[in-house]
Amino acid sequence: MKRIQLGPFNRVEGDLEVNLEVEGGHVVSAQVNSPLFRGFEQVLIGRLPEDALTIVPRICGICSVAQSAAAATALADLAGITPPPNGLLAQRLIQATENLADHLTHFYLFFMPDFARSVYAGRDWYAPVAARFMAVKGKAAGDVLQARARFFNLIGFLAGRWPHTLALQPGGSTKAMTPAERIRVLALLREFRAFLENVLLGDTLEAFSALDSEQALLAWAAGRNADFPLFLHAAGDLALERTGRAADRFLSYGAYGLFASGLWQPDAPPAKLDATKITEDTRHAWLADSEPLPPARGETVVNAEKAGAYTWCKSPRYAGQVVETGALARQVVAGNRLARDLVERHGASVTARVVARMIELAGVLPAMEQWVRDLVPGDPFCLPAPLPESGEGIGLVEAARGSLGHWLSVKRGHIERYQIIAPTTWNFSPRDRENQPGPLEQALVGLPAGDGTLPTVQHVVRSFDPCMVCTVH
Amino acid sequence: MKVLWLQSAGCGGCTQSMLCAAPRPLFDELRDAGIEFLWHPALALESGEEALAILEECAAGRLAFDVLCVEGAMLRGPNGSGKFHLMAGDGRPLTEWVERLARQARWVFAIGSCTAYGGLSASTPGNPLEACGLQYDTDTPGGLLGAAFQSSGGLPVVNIAGCPTHPGWVVDTLEKLALEGLNASDLDEFGRPLLYADQLVHHGCARNEFYEFKASAQKHSDLGCLMENLGCKGTQAHADCNLRPWNGSGSCLRGGFACIACTEPGFESPGHAFQQTPKVAGIPIGLPTDMPKAWFVALAALSKSATPKRVRDNSVVDHPVVRPTVKKGVK
Ligand code: SF4
Ligand code: SF4
Fold first, then answer.
1. Above 80 in pLDDT, residue B288?
2. CA B215, CA B313: separation in Å to the nearest integer?
3. Is ipTM beyond 0.95?
4. Rounded distance, CA A235 to CA A460, Å?
5. Tens digit of pLDDT for each residue in A15-50?
6. A positions 307-366 inside 8 Å of B (CB)
7. Inter-chain CB proximity A167 and B89 less than 8 Å
8. Measured between CB atoms, which of B12, B44, B257 is closest to A13?
9. Which of A81, A147, A199, A299 has the fewest CB atoms within 10 Å, counting from its CB?
10. Is A98:A422 a contact under the CB 8 Å cutoff?
């Protein structure tokens, strides 16, 4: 038995270390560690509830809008109000911009550079992949940075700036769009569409969205000259559609009124979301031990010397079980046929997780175009949302990486408790008190590791698109 | 010019923001200015042992580099152990790496307000994280490297403050350094580059006409000036946010929300609600720093009484309801 410690695991958001036990060249057990603690749940205690809107985006620089949306939703829940139609559309547009930009950043800047590693030299796909995706130097880097920066101009119009906007409020959005801005935003969406169609997919978004099975996907990709088909070619060669399976139990809180919420697993009927089944366990975290608690009663108390602990990440569980969250989970729960087919054939995998992000890029952009058309300039974007002196609120949203929940309680006008479960907290959770490993810990078992092996572990870790700064708040 | 980048207890937002550099893609822009990343945690290919080897070569003085950029607060806790942030794969505190690398760097840049002054991590009551900035503990000189620190290039830490920092502030400071160097006279009292910090957010704000007449927004999404009621500190915050737009044409104020002065030390604990203006006897405290209070009060009263109907009516709605008058028959 050999122990391998991997870190710094860069090209993820934040800090990650992976410890592997390897036997005969394969992983027999994995521990996933977040060696950073930020403690935002404590920063929030005692503050005014509306201050959460300023503080929580700063949990994460890559999904700050998602954090902000969760807080705004929790405060709206506390206030018992719903934003007006324009406000909801604006919130959706702002969230979708960030989520799609995240998918793009992940694919081009975080995930694909591993395929340009020299161990793959000699594969028939290596030369074009290295030319496109080499870290920083690859040709695709310039293309994608340009497309990404231009796409974020939407946020300039809709939310002032990115990251860390304060535009999302419990009552809607602080920025009422003018008729002129509406036209400009549509033009920006067309520009982003052109990038996705010409550079990423090599086909129209609608044609890609129509693919309904693995077979159809592979037939579509064959001979197609664009970045995502190039990945599919490499992934097929490396059998990544059968690599990186976790628990095959998928959670989604639902997004944009477009994708349903729920729990899905093979060989069982889809289940409705029941948020009361969510608990967090701290057994293997450097946090005081307690029974698994629902987040509305959760605690985050540091115990840096705790025996048996190996991370700052808690273990969220749904009905006591390990679940995966993210774009694949969202699409499987929502019933996307291509995502379901991939999972039913092989279980969750590196390929399926990447394909799911493409499904969202192709499917959400046309929805955004429609939301912009649906805006009615002149109608209100934001309603006043007076908050009660005491009460509780829950905000469940989907970040790019999966289900994000905020639970807050307020007493005498100040925040009494604030608990956050981020997507990567689910996916990169450590073992719980029943000794069940988290999703990534499961997905790494069986992979080749050690000297001279392919970077399969890297592909699997990054297929989840981890965000460690969210995880450790 | 070689840049080594580290991330500590921050949100990664300053890097994410920097990737939005415009009009040219960041990597092209930097390459053509002769600037390259020796290693960057979000962008570099090398991870694990390869990455640690690069850092160790630099820290030991065997591999030369020019600028150490650090993003995120320094966590010294618990009990001075640095355990709240250990280098992955290495087990040593990030604070130790930063101290070693800062001694070898010709210049040290704090990227963002967390790194410069401690940021939100330092604002937990009692600061259990023992968080601080590189050379400041909020607005007090000190921090991890000490008040007297100078890098071998002869400058204290350059504080490219902002939460997050604007891509242009980082790129322009790096390019200025590459082009002709940086001097102490290029920095303000808090170590911020004057190229963006000798302006106020208030400069060029699209709401300036409303400000002139103290025609103030009453609630979120109103068009009026956000200073009187909604917490705007644009008249006190050092940054060029309304002259150098964010994300194409944005800014906090254009987005309809207050400037919370994110480039100032201690912005994260203002002592009042972020989006409300504290007042004494109906008069906002925290008035523009370079204006006597009595004058401000007198002028505000006068300008309020002279506010045109268009400005007054438009200030409390989310889209203009009175258009600027069109004069007919003027020759
Ligand atoms: S909103 Fe703020 S920055 Fe804009 S004019 Fe008013 S005080 Fe100045
Ligand atoms: S307007 Fe104020 S809060 Fe907004 S980015 Fe500029 S300095 Fe920071």
1. no
2. 9
3. yes
4. 12
5. 899 999 999 999 999 999 999 999 999 999 999 999
6. none
7. no
8. B12
9. A299
10. no
